[in-house]
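Obj: model holo form, ligand = protoporphyrin IX containing FE.
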Amino acid sequence: MSESTLPGQDVPLFNPFAEGFAENPYPQYARLRDEAPVYEHPLGFWTVTRYADVSALLRSGASVEERNVAPGPLSYLREEVYGDRSPRVGGLSMLDRDPPDHTRLRKLVSKAFTPRSVQALRPRIAELVDGMLDDIAERGRVDLVSVLAFPLPFAVIAEMLGTPPTDHLRVRELSGLLVRSLEPVVDPELLRAIEDANTELGEIAADMIAWKRRNPADDLLTALIGAEEDGDVLDDDELIAQVLLLYIAGHETTVNLLGGGTLALLREPSQYAALVRDPALVPGAVEELLRYDSPVQESRRITLEPMTIDGVEIPKGAFVMAVLASANRDERYWGADADRLRVDREGARHHVSFGAGVHHCLGASLARLEGEVVFERLASRFPGLRLDGDVEWNGRINLRGPAVLPVSTEP
Ligand code: HEM
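Output (holo structure tokens):
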């Protein structure tokens, strides 16, 4: 018997394709934390699931860049589809670069994406949310994902980048495809479609960049084009890659905070009622919702050296999944009620939902701002909000959240 199987078990400890996993992956994570916190999967990758270990791995300097070249768990399929060529979706974005390239890209993007520029968006975000809530009030019963959780973060990032409204629909479709590159894809057709979406979205971004160079405006894209550090600027290919990253990171994650967060609150009506009673709880509640159901469930690294974690040696060149969602429920760190939603939990902001180390989410302040505006206004406008129908999950393992969330505004 290998270490990776348990007596009487013939399925791997971690099986994201198992029935029910997309709805509720937490029992599998709990088992991993207890029985094999550093686990070598028979498919040739590793999972790390305890809070302390996930934090250590993300801060360790293990590589993100190597993910594009090192054989991943599904690389046999890529070879079949692409021959020698490995798809390089997002390869020039900061999320896929190690220092020193990462340091340089992040510094330049940070010049344009500043805390001050994010805070300045508050009134516009409130205006967008109020418009969406008006629509919800009128209809009474809606799918909250399609009327609020998705369109809000999309509108915010599309406006920030100065995207022409005529491109919005196509950009939505393409980024919906491109985001699948963060999931374990086994369908060759889908792999090709992702690659094509990357090319087409890159062309749209290139056109926008060319246009903005001629027509600078007060927006993030113009600021990215002009960002400069000691005479260094982003070249066109680098700009395109950062724009694609911002599009996807800007909405395909926050949708899960808003949709999954609302679902969690409505499943625990006492917690929603607490926000209705005391809006001052909202900022802390956003942290707890991020902890309770991580909008990004895992983050991947390749070891550059052998690494010993929790007494287990992971070899050099291993593909390791840091399961953020599991770390956020680790009772060793959070205590016995780790599986409970408590909007007044102390220290909830120490979750790892935004990652840790040099790749810590650059858009965390924007995501928090959107979460605060939404939950504050939702609770004040619809104190009787309730679930009203079956939830459908988006079926994703990593950027996991509800795809359909039927709610009613009346008790
Ligand atoms: C990186 C989560 C919203 C932009 C990350 C990472 C995580 C994350 C886990 C690190 C990935 C890794 O270490 O491999 C989230 C969550 C969000 C969110 C949970 C919403 C609830 C946003 C928004 C933006 C954004 C709104 C921008 C508009 C970025 C960027 C990076 C990043 C640019 C790359 C940082 C780097 O590589 O240095 N995010 N994100 N994110 N995020 Fe977010």
